Amino acid sequence: MKSKNCIYRQKYSVIGENQYTSNVESGSTRIEIKHWVELFFCVRVIAMNSHRLRGKARRMGPITGQTMHYRRMIITLQPGYSIPPLKKKRT
User: Fold this and answer.
1) Domains, the chain, ranges and CATH?
2) C-alpha angle with apex 80: 36 to 9, nearest 5 degrees?
């Protein structure tokens, strides 16, 4: 599965009871994302929502461009499962 920063964005947010959100590459499918989350975190996903977000327009002098498009996923886990907090890298 393709994604940003080694399949998974290095951050996620808790948005509700057993609900998490994160960004992945826009080319990923919902089934790939669900399967990857279940394998990587050893959890059971009961619902998965996602939507595509367009990249933002950027400009540097006369040159214009835009950032990459991405997909935001919102996953709901079965009761009793949770995703542990990610450890921060030391710099």
Assistant:
1) 1-55+66-79 (3.30.70.330)
2) 30
